[in-house]
Specification:
Structural class: mainly alpha
GO molecular function: N6-(1,2-dicarboxyethyl)AMP AMP-lyase (fumarate-forming) activity
Domain Fumarate lyase N-terminal: 3-177
CATH architecture of the largest domain: Up-down Bundle
Strand content: 5-15%
Number of helices: 15
CATH class of the largest domain: Mainly Alpha
Domain Adenylosuccinate lyase PurB C-terminal: 193-307
Pfam families: ASL_C, Lyase_1
Radius of gyration: 28 Å
Number of domains: 3
Shape: elongated
Low-confidence stretches: none
Largest sheet: 2 strands, antiparallel
Protein name: Adenylosuccinate lyase
Distance between the termini: 20 Å
Number of strands: 6
Helix content: 55-70%
Length: 324
């Protein structure tokens, strides 16, 4: 873990942090339930993933790797028969901790593997977050928000020469699925052993490397995919220009603040299921009975500027990641 898995996890967190900071200023349409929602920035969405991945990376590193040295059923039976005057629990603890492990004094023939379940659950959750990232990037590529830098000699399709497929993110997602399937079984099986021990864990433990190997392949695939991404600001901006209805939220919020009756209902009538333009939104705002300053501030809003604290949150993602 320390020499192979953690360094690549850290590279991933760093790469996504860089995406957040580099694109902090790029306003972007949000989508909830697949439909247009209040704007965000591309960088803020990447920051969300950076913080989530960092948090789970930290949880993985906090799992204590346990060890035991208490004999055939965990009671120092043979130890005490042979050398009854020795403090075996103390010696066992000193020996186990000298190996860099945490000592578990309450065991059977085996250390019960609970820490392994914790470890594999934590890695699975890191992988789940990365699947979410892979799928979102895949969707953004599909929308045209990202272009992919082509590699000389690379073939996107055997019959469609124009294709540049998001193969790195698809490869990552597939490998993460295989890894998590393996980790799921390990987490469920390993803490269970009949009475003082059965042998069902033995064959399962031999497959520990399978999930880690597929995870490593996935992490490297995602990193490779990130390195090929190029932001298509024109496409992102065009989407925002076509969705002035997202300003319904701030308009009705200001209407509520100043006691304008039925704000939600009026905006719903104007926007829901209808083509909304800049002109129709501006006309609606002009007709509102609001204080001059409030109306002036509303009229300055555009889908590009209505991003709340998204820019600052993206720019300061490093501090958020370091705090976790």
């Amino acid at each position: 873990m320390n020499n192979v898995i953690f360094p690549v996890m850290d590279d991933l967190v760093e790469a996504v942090c860089d995406m957040a900071k580099d694109n902090a200023h790029i306003s972007m349409l949000s989508r909830t339930h697949g439909q247009p929602a209040s704007p965000t920035t591309l960088g803020k969405e990447m920051a969300n993933f950076a913080v989530r991945l960092s948090r789970e990376r930290r949880e993985i590193s906090r799992v204590e790797i346990m060890g035991k040295f208490a004999g055939a059923v965990g009671n120092y039976n043979a130890h005490l028969v042979a050398y009854p005057d020795i403090n075996w629990p103390q010696i066992a603890e000193e020996f186990v901790t000298s190996l860099g492990l945490s000592f578990n004094p309450y065991v059977t023939q085996i250390e019960p593997h609970d820490y392994m379940a914790e470890l594999f659950h934590a890695i699975s959750q890191f992988n789940n977050i990365l699947i979410d990232f892979d799928r979102d990037i895949w969707d953004y590529i599909s929308l045209g928000y990202f272009k992919q830098i082509t590699k000389a000699g690379e073939i996107g399709s055997s019959t469609m020469p124009h294709k540049v497929n998001p193969i790195d993110f698809e490869n990552s997602e597939g490998n993460l699925g295989v890894a998590n399937g393996n980790f799921c079984h390990l987490s469920m099986k390993l803490p269970i052993s009949r009475w003082q021990r059965d042998l069902t864990d033995s064959t399962v433990l031999r497959n520990m490397g399978l999930g880690l190997g597929h995870s490593l392949l996935a992490y490297k695939s995602t990193l490779q995919g990130i390195s090929k991404l190029q932001v298509n600001e024109g496409c992102i901006s065009e989407d925002l220009n076509l969705t002035w209805e997202v300003l319904a939220e701030p308009i009705q919020t200001i209407m509520r603040r100043y006691g304008v009756p039925e704000p939600y209902e009026k905006l719903k009538e104007l926007t829901r299921g209808r083509a909304v333009t800049k002109e129709s939104i501006v006309d609606f705002m002009q007709g509102l009975e609001l204080p001059n300053e409030a109306k002036s501030n509303l009229l300055k809003l555009t889908p590009h500027s209505y991003v709340g604290a998204a820019v600052e949150l993206a720019r300061t993602v490093d501090s958020a990641v370091k705090v976790l």
